[in-house]
Amino acid sequence: MKHKFTLVSLLVIATLLISACAPQIVEVTKQVEVTKQVQVEVTKQVQVVVTATPAPAPAPKSGGTLIVARAADTKGMDPHKQTAFASFRVMELIYSTLVELDKDMNVVPGVAESWKWSTDGKVLTATLRKNVKFHDGTPMTSADVKFSFERILDEKTGAAARATFSSIDKVEAPDASTVVFTLKAPNVALLAGMTSLNAAILSKKLVGDDKADPAVKVIGTGPFKLVKWDPDKTLTLEANKDFYIAGQPRLAGIEMRTIPDEASILAALRAGTVDWALINDPRTGIVASSSSSKLTVSRAPALAYHVLQLNAARDMFKDQKVRQAVSCAINRQEVLDTASLGEGEVTSPLTPPFYRADLSKLDCYKKDAEKSKTLLKDAGSPKVTFKAIVANAEPPTAIAEAQNIQAQLKPFGIDMQIESLELSVYVARWLAADFDAAIALNGGNPDPHNMFVRYWTSTGNLNKVAGYKDPAIDVLMDKGSVTTDPAERKKIYDEIQAKLATAAPWVWLYVGFEYRIMQPYVKGFTPMANGQTIYLRETWLDK
Questions:
Q1: Start-to-end Cα distance in the chain
Q2: Are 402 and 390 in contact (CB under 8 A)?
């Protein structure tokens, strides 16, 4: 039995080196388990590979410009206000955060080299690196960190992550290298929240004293500097030679080209005019992963989730029975299969694997036509007609999701009309909660509290977008923020997920994959489940 497990593991590893296509891995594993004879035969072959001396890995090289293609351009440069993924993927290279996530979603040092908690969990003291400089050459100090978090907490800023840090009572800077966060109550999710681009460190002198608009004057401490931005065409970055990590970035620069059609991006990759691409459409990812392709495909399970948001503040959705009827009428797997060709899995409201709820225990996660009809009848058989806003660029699956949901709801007499919008218009409408419903792709976080706090607490800064409040969820969220035992925390967030599924303010659909496609000479890139591109700073060109 021991040999069987070893064999399966080795075959999976070998298959991963050959292709990023998950179905192939599954098929190989099944074949291994057919007979003992097959197991012995393959074991002998694998042993030869294992004992062979591997070729030495090439040493990383410095220099060169990485040509990047993406379908949607950046929509703004103020890191505290942005919510569009297209903006995040650029600003992550320009700005830095106190702490970061590694490839396994663990919190690791960023511009803070270390931190410690008080015994009561209400004081977080961070020690900053002493060699961090802004792109204009000025040193970053604790005053900049204090200013940045106070700006985030100021309601006038309109910061996207304000609710994430609402537990902070005050921020102090006793010396240039020390920042002290005093909390109103313990918050075990705080550090994970600080890894977000929405918690980037800005220059106090530039933004605070000189009143510069960070959306226009783009100065960070990250591995790359903004050189030029021609909207919807190209964005050019150059290496920050004063970056605080020695030897990084390895690239001399990055040129980002906006190519709206992902099929055209793939053609450019095949033609060799593009080195690396951000891909959102699973169709493109599947084609690029074909056996005849010479491209390298990174395929990481995503934390971001696809969702149909129902605005419970609108008259047609104030009745919970109507929202439940919509939820019960939708086959989520069908939406996934139609829009993303099955690339992903149906998800509960939380997407970190440990905190996902058992779908069989959530109301209407399996399509129930009779229950949907009964709910509508119990609601007084209302005429349910509404518009769903859909972004036409992010994600590329949104229109297909909307069309499939529209078709699934029609037999129930539910009329969902589709309103396709340019991305920046969509984001503005979404933030203003100016919609009956929205097809959305929302970001995930390794910590469940950070995924929920903005939307589902009564004081959350995006609660208006969520359109639903429940005092019982407020109580559970407060409890979850101070509970340190993972098993106990899971029970709390399972209960919240059950309440949300029953109330059905949103219909959570599925999670997909984060695709990054690159030439074989692009080395050292680390894919992230949350889609971050921060490790382009370690990427290099082997040519």
A1: 45
A2: yes
| Sequence-ordered list of residues with C-beta below 8 angstroms from that of 106, at least 6 positions apart, any chain | none
Interatomic CA distance for residues 190 and 188, integer angstroms: 6
Q: Tens digits of per-residue pLDDT, 2-31? A: 333 333 333 333 333 333 333 332 222 333
Compute the distance between CA of residue 303 and CA of residue 305 in angstroms, rounded to an integer. 6
β-strands 506-518, 540-541 pairing: unpaired
Spatial CB neighbours of 96, under 8 Å, sequence gap ≥ 6: 110, 111, 132, 200, 201, 220, 221, 222, 244
Average pLDDT, rounded, for the chain: 89
Task: Using DSSP, state whether 479 is helix, strand or coil.
Answer: helix
Let me know how many helices (H) and strands (E) the chain has, helices first.
Answer: 17, 19
Q: What's at 71, amino acid-wise?
A: A
Contact 89, 72 (CB under 8 A): no
Q: Please tell me the predicted confidence (pLDDT) of residue 475.
A: 98
> pLDDT per residue over 139-150, tens digit each?
999 999 999 999
How are the residues of the chain apportioned to helix, strand and coil, as percentages rounded to the nearest 5? 40, 20, 40
Residue 374 half-sphere exposure toward CB, CA atoms < 13 A: 6
Rg (CA), the chain: 24
Which residues, 6+ apart, have CB-to-CB distance to 27 below 8 Å? none
**Phi, psi of 30, rounded to the nearest 5 degrees:** -65, -40
Give CA 426 to chain center in angstroms: 18
pTM for this structure? 0.82
The amino acid at residue 22 is: A
Mean pLDDT, rounded, for 156-180? 97
- List phi, psi (to 5°) of 356: -65, 140
Q: What is the pLDDT of residue 53?
A: 56
What kind and span of H or E run contains 450?
Answer: helix 448-456
Q: Which residues contact 97 (CB under 8 A, 6 or more apart)?
A: 110, 111, 194, 195, 196, 197, 199, 200, 201
Count CB atoms within 10 A of the CB of residue 232.
11
- Which secondary structure element, helix H or strand E, spans residue 126, and what is its range? strand 123-128
What pLDDT, in 10s, does the model give residues 365-396? 999 999 999 999 999 999 999 999 999 877 89
- Dig out the tokens for 459 from the structure: 């004081």
Q: Which tokens go with 226?
A: 């903004």
**CB within 8 A of 380, min separation 6: which ones?**
none
Provide the angle, in degrees to the nearest 10, between the axes of the packed helices 320-329 and 486-503.
100
Look at residue 68 and tell me whether its pLDDT is greater than 90.
yes
Q: What percent of the chain has pLDDT over 70?
A: 90
Burial code (b: 16+ CB inside 10 Å, e: under 16) for 47-64 equals eeeeeeeeeeeeeeeeeb
Q: What average pLDDT score do residues 222-240 get?
A: 97
| 514 phi/psi in degrees, rounded to 5 | -100, 115
107 CB contacts (<8 Å, ≥6 apart)? Answer: 99, 100, 101, 191, 192, 195
